[in-house]
Amino acid sequence: MINSQFDKLVDRKGTNCLKYDFAAEFGRPEGLIPLWVADMDFCVPEQVKKTLLRCAEHGVFGYTDAKPEYFQVLGKWFLDHFGWKTDASWVVKSPGVVFALAAAIRAFSKEGESILIQQPVYHPFANVIKANERKLVVNQLVCEDGVYRMDYADFEKKIVEEEVKVFLLCSPHNPVGRVWTREELQRVGDICLKHKVLVVSDEIHCDFTYPGYQHLVYASLGQVYADNSIVCTAPSKTFNLAGLQASNIWIPNPTIREQFQKEIAKTGYSDLNTCGLAACQAAYAYGGEWLEELKEYLTGNLEFVRTFLKENLPQIHLIEPQGTYLLWVDFRELGLSAEELNQLLVEKAHLWLNDGSMFGECGSGFQRINIACQRETLKKAFKQLAEAIDSLK
Ligand SMILES: Cc1ncc(COP(=O)(O)O)c(C=O)c1O
Fold first, then answer.
1. Total structural domains in the chain?
2. pLDDT at residue number 3
3. Residue 54 is assigned to a structural domain of this protein
4. Do the bridges between strand 247-250 and strand 229-233 make them parallel or antiparallel, or are there none, so unpaired?
5. Which domain holds residue 161?
């Protein structure tokens, strides 16, 4: 029964999409239900599709750039959703958030200098630090009673001992699903100000919070925080536009902005692609209602998983997410080795999840599960999981 536009099955197979069409390339058997890479199995808002169709029909794809309306639409979105007053001049466009993280690392540190992250965290954080020959410093998040928290003492100790230059904050946090509170952000922010550490806040998941949680833009905490920050945003997660490669990097401090722009200029990159730019503007202009409906649907998906695990698989523990459509799930009570667990998930459950250890060693025994798919897909996946775990008896 179709209750929501998001229940409609979209066949993504054969579109060269990473999630469904690259099993062999990733060394996986065919036919797994893919709940891994962070994109959604949903069509974009109708207005975005129409905008892209108009673009395609025009048939000319020359160079473009953003007009004032682009920045107005962006500014309105962040004001309406997060109470954050911005200025168009703060925006630096980037093909991706990870591209921007890498540029920030190069712009604000030298080879061999330290960059701090909070694992378990989105794995490209560590990858870009290492690829740019910086030193990876980890301030591990601590899980207390099923809630991940920051260890401030260790955070400051590592910053001082390792002379950290840049802190990559993940807010909301992928994969543990935390929506950081004002107090938490201010505490780490104050430590960074004290020791002159630049805060690069990856807020790509900012639009996904569950009822009762409100995302806070790091730079909206106050002038001193804004002046020491780079805030990375994109319509890519929110509206399922990742393949169009458009993101907006906000840098209120003109000195930091200029240094960042110089680094981007060094790469030779100049502007967003025509379709990405148009889709981004249309999504922020017209996608509000669609997003509200989507969030309701995802809340339903989360409720399904929560209830299913409680009723059928009590030995598997969901880390209750406050935001993002990625679930962080603890399989350690099964008592399996990493290899045994992955074998069970692939060969018996026929699922393609993200192994927790890719987000840092502390993620071992966990799996990340993407629930941005039709409920029917999710039901099938969890039924397969329950049958596989049953087979262990
Ligand atoms: C925290 C986080 N940052 C960045 C990205 C990717 O951003 P982009 O595709 O713009 O590089 C993802 C995608 O999953 C993510 O979860």
1. 2
2. 76
3. no
4. antiparallel
5. 59-284
Q: Which among 231, 258, 284 is the end of a domain?
A: 284
C-beta 170 within 6 A of ligand 1: yes
Which atom from ligand 1 is nearest to the alpha carbon of 242? 9
What letter represents residue 251's amino acid?
Answer: I
Rounded distance, CA 338 to CA 355, Å? 9
Over range 229-255, report the average pLDDT: 98
Is 123 a member of any domain? yes
Q: Residues 274, 291: one domain?
A: no
**169 in the same domain as 267:** yes
**What's the mean pLDDT in 260-276?**
94
Non-local CB neighbours of 186 within 8 Å, separated by 6+ positions: 221, 225
Residue 133 and residue 376 in contact, taking contact as beta carbons nearer than 8 Å: no
Same domain, 224 and 106: yes
244 Cβ closer than 6 Å to some ligand 1 atom = no
The edge-to-edge listing of strands for the beta sheet with 91-94 is 91-94, 247-250, 229-233, 198-202, 164-170, 114-117, 135-138
Identify whether residues 251 and 301 lie together within a single domain: no
* Per-residue tokens: 218: 């790091």
Read off the pTM: 0.98
Percentage, residues of the chain above pLDDT 70:
99
Whether residues 294 and 145 share a domain: the answer is: no
Query: Residue 261 CA to chain centroid, in angstroms?
Result: 23
Residue 150 in contact with ligand 1 by CB distance below 6 A: no
Say how many C-beta atoms besides its own lie within 10 A of residue 58's C-beta: 9
